[in-house]
Amino acid sequence: MANRLTTFGNDLYTGKRSFNFVGGRKKWYTIAGILILLSVVVPLLTGINFSIEFRGGSQFQIAQVENATAEPAIEAVHSVVPDAEVRVAIVGGTGVRVQTDQLDQADSQDVTGALAEAYDVPESEVTSSFIGPSWGADVTRQALVGLVAFLLLAGIIMALYFRTWKMSLAAILALIGDLVVTVGIYAAVGFEISPAATIGILTILSYSLYDTVVVFDKIRENTAEDGQESRRTFAESVNLAVNQTLVRSINTSVVAALPVAAILFIGAGVLGADTLRDISLALLIGILVGTWSTVFVAAPLYSQLREGEPAISRHDQKVLKERERAASVSTGAEALPTA
């Protein structure tokens, strides 16, 4: 098995075996466009499930209960405030967290007593707190400022490093697509957007950009070595670079995704740590989406942006004409009669 994988990677690197990522870019653009469109439309139709830190409200926590189910909590809250919107989460298998709209002090005390009675625990075991929406608004504003600053700085640095703004543009556009699709998946599945999830979503920026830079660096290396005498078109050189780094991209993604998945399914699922769940879930989605966009969107987009340049266009036409000439000579030689 290991030998087959090694052979497969070597074949991709030498060009003996190749996947036409750049040539199929219209198909990849269509898929990416559909995903982005759905990621924009779905939140507009269903809304985004923001956590209490963003929307504000009252929260009640019962640490240890014998019957950790949601129904008693819902009934208890509605017995005090019939029209309250109630969200119940089971924490760690034995804990219950109840979130409601903002309640006044009297209703909050009554709900505390009702929850204690519903779960047969002393009132002292029920903790209550109020969270205002202003904190979440501050986090959102700071996150947006940080996002814009990151995109600007990353774009400038990449343009200087690769000596072309087109690589920078392709990478940033793919990165923005990653963010939109990640948020869209959250909205479609109903995952809660919490401050921890926001941190996770912003963290995937660095991973996605790292994977893109690795591929782009190989593209720059290939196109710089080709020169005017190269027998490959610019698109073929870009496609070769993507194939040469494909195994590395997959390996990097798997290595990054495994510990994140462990945190998500073991740490969050078994231990009931909501913060770990929110961060790891955003990271896992972002890693998968970022790897896909690097291979299928960023590299083909960069190739398309450069193919119209006069020097590259002349080179590509020269390569194609030489191939046509070689093909016609070969066909003529085959047609000659044999003695």
Topology:
Blueprint: H1 2-14, H2 25-46, H3 52-55, E1 57-62, H4 71-80, E2 87-91, E3 95-100, H5 105-118, E4 126-131, H6 133-162, H7 165-189, H8 195-226, H9 234-244, H10 246-271, H11 274-307, H12 310-335
Antiparallel strand pairs: 1-3, 1-4, 2-3
Characterization of the model:
The longest helix is centred in the C-terminal third of the chain and has 34 residues, at 274-307. The protein has helices at 2-14, 25-46, 52-55, 71-80, 105-118, 133-162, 165-189, 195-226, 234-244, 246-271, 274-307, 310-335; strands spanning 57-62, 87-91, 95-100, 126-131. The chain is 73% helix and 7% strand. The two termini are 51 Å apart. With 339 residues, the chain is an alpha+beta fold. β2 and β3 form a beta hairpin. Strands 2-3-1-4 form a 4-stranded antiparallel beta sheet. It folds into 2 domains: 17-49 and 135-323, Up-down Bundle (Multidrug efflux transporter AcrB transmembrane fold), CATH 1.20.1640.10; 57-131, ACT domain (Alpha-Beta Plaits, 2-Layer Sandwich). The protein is elongated and about 90 Å long. The relative contact order is 0.13. Belongs to the SecD/SecF family. SecF subfamily. This is Protein-export membrane protein SecF. Forms a complex with SecD. Part of the essential Sec protein translocation apparatus which comprises SecA, SecYEG and auxiliary proteins SecDF. Other proteins may also be involved. Residues 123-306 form the Protein export membrane protein SecD/SecF C-terminal domain.
